[in-house]
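Hi team,

Below is the intake form for Zinc ABC transporter substrate-binding protein from Aeromicrobium yanjiei. Please confirm the fields before the structure is written into the shared record.

FORM ID: S-0412
PROTEIN: Zinc ABC transporter substrate-binding protein
ORGANISM: Aeromicrobium yanjiei
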Amino acid sequence: MNKSRLLLATVPLLAVLTACGGGAQDDGRASVVASSYPFAFVAERVGGSAVDVTNLTAPGTEPHDLELKPKQVASVQDADLVIYQEDFQAAVDQAVDQAGRSDDDTIDVASLVELLPNPSEEEGEHHADDGHDHGDTDPHTWLDPRTMSALAEAVSTELSRIDPEHAADYQANADRLVDELTALDEDFTAGLRACRTRTIVTSHAAFQYLAARYDLKQVAIAGLDPSNEPSPAQLGDISRLVRAQKITTIFTEELVSPAIADTIAKETGATTATLDPIEGLSDQTKDETYLTLMRRNLDTLKKANSCQ
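The structure came back. Fields below:
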């Protein structure tokens, strides 16, 4: 009797363990794990209905501070494809390293673009130590639409290798997305061509790739991580710059406290507006997409910088 009970108790446990293993989904779809929203967006658009995409960064979560649950760590181990960017989310870097994944089943977005230097180090700024190591480069690559086009092509290539049966669909989906991203890039170029000022004051240093692409100058209140705090001297420098250049808008973010930006705006007579770094979705933007958020950013920039 005891042996029978032990066998009955073991069967459900084995079923649970079996369900947790393996990369492919029970319905035959390829499984993709993306570290944050921009990469999940591309995976969903390119993969379509043939792919199951998991975003490790839930809406409302500040992606720099992401901590993974054991189930999420297991998903990094088991997925057919992992898309992430090294030196952006330490917990994801660690999970990828622990999983021992190869270049054949992992896309590191940093390998697709020429990374720009950490803007804080370039300008000799020293923010308070926040416990995060973002390295010597800026990880916010996705705010350049051309980076997203390169990622779409890379995802199509990898998914076609993993799932050759749907290769034509993946390529067609990638082509459509690249067309939309190209149109977005062209609209940014045209919309920001002639502006009264080309300086943008942002909550944290997330917009260097966007600024570099469209000939803007980013002045960041915080460093690469929004939890960094500027020194009083830095705040004074920013306030003087805002007055000298007659900057009308200080940009805040959905997932970052606006307190310091509000203070600068109040002291200088500027207003505030939201410029979304699209690191992750918030409760307010969970129904938006990368494309709609970028176009909202474009409208915000054109208004704030008096662009013709």
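SUMMARY LINE: The two ends are 83 Å apart (CA to CA).

Thanks, M.
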